[in-house]
Design brief:
single chain, DNA polymerase, domain 1, six-stranded parallel beta sheet, globular, 6 strands, alpha/beta, about 45% helix, Rossmann fold
């Protein structure tokens, strides 16, 4: 008899597993200093989630964005990793999945190597990490690895879950209010990841 594959839960990274605002603020401040271009870092961190190029388009002409994005990624490890903490409940959520025999994947719009450094620094160890995926594209990765739940803080994360026919669990720890996440079609809206272990227990019991 072939053993059933373990269930897999996917997570977004920024503002779901980590509070990336301090780190992103620091990188954008340094990028502004280097380039001489005004970047409102407070505004940037108020809308985290979309890919970097979309944010840089607010500050730089389109032809300059690829080079500026590369410089941002070069600066990132030195300025962004240490100031960035794990979100409350992140470690407990990972532990609950492991205790239930599940696998954990992280699917993020962030550059994969920088995402890996964040996870290592805060002591979170997913089984699978997929970078540079945003919105419905996240569904491709979820489908590839058989994830049946996807947890995120953004409406685009709901779209990713929907693209994979996965349960869309939203946490109201990012830029989108809980009511707006619910209105966008989230199956579950939690205040934060502290509520995830109890939800997971009920979800698995009902399966």
């Amino acid at each position: 008899m072939i053993a059933a594959a373990p269930f897999t839960v996917g997570f977004d990274l920024d503002m779901t597993l980590i509070d990336s605002r301090p780190g992103v603020h620091a990188v954008m401040t340094e990028l502004s200093r280097e380039t001489g271009v005004h970047i409102d870092a407070d505004a940037v961190v108020s809308r985290l989630g979309p890919p970097l190029d979309e944010e840089l388009a607010n500050w730089f002409p389109a032809p300059e964005i690829p080079a500026i994005a590369n410089r941002y990624r070069e600066l990132y490890p030195a300025f962004a990793i240490k100031p960035t903490p794990a979100m409350p409940g992140a470690a407990e959520s990972f532990a609950a999945i492991r205790a239930a025999g599940g696998r954990i994947m992280v699917v993020t719009a962030k550059y994969g190597p920088n995402a890996a450094q964040h996870l290592e620094y805060v002591g979170l160890e997913p089984d699978i990490l997929v970078g540079w995926h945003w919105g419905p594209q996240k569904g491709e990765a979820l489908l590839e690895h058989g994830a049946t739940v996807y947890v995120g803080d953004h409406i685009a994360d709901i779209h990713g879950a929907r693209a994979a026919a996965a349960v869309a669990v939203s946490v109201a720890t990012g830029p989108i209010a809980a009511a707006d996440l619910a209105a966008a079609g989230a199956d579950v809206v939690l205040a934060d990841l502290l509520g995830f272990p109890a939800w997971l227990h009920g979800y698995l019991a009902a399966c």
